Amino acid sequence: MIKAIYRVLEGKVFLSSTVTERMICRSIGSDNYTDQSPIESLSDRELEVFELIGEGETTRQIADKLNLSPKTVETYRENIKHKLNLENATALIRHAIQWVLE
C-alpha cells in the first residue's frame, strides 16, 4: 500500500498485479486468465456504473456523473444484470454494494 501511495505521489500510475495481469491478457486477446470472475466480464463502462451503483448512486446521479442519459444507464444496468446472472434490481444493488465493500 505504501508503494502505491508513493508511486501516485510521484505522478505515476499504480496497478495491482491482478489488474496488470488482466490488462495484459485482454490486450493480447488471451482467454487464459484463470482467476476471472463474472465481474471481469463487464466492460470498463459497465464496471464504472456497477461501482457507482454500489456506492448508492441513483440512475439519475450516475447519468449526471458520467454525462450519459438515464436511459443509457438503465441499459448498462440491464447488461450488468444479464452478465452477472442477477434476477432483479435489488440483487444488482446488493451485489454492487458487496463488491464495493470488498
TrEMBL record:
SMART domains: HTH_LUXR
Gene3D superfamilies: Winged helix-like DNA-binding domain superfamily/Winged helix DNA-binding domain
Nucleotide-binding as UniProt keyword: no
GO biological process, one term: regulation of DNA-templated transcription
Record PROSITE patterns: HTH_LUXR_1 (PS00622), HTH_LUXR_2 (PS50043)
One Gene Ontology MF term: DNA binding
Name used for this protein in its record: Response regulator UvrY
Annotated organism of origin: Gimesia fumaroli
Classification of source organism: Bacteria, Pseudomonadati, Planctomycetota, Planctomycetia, Planctomycetales
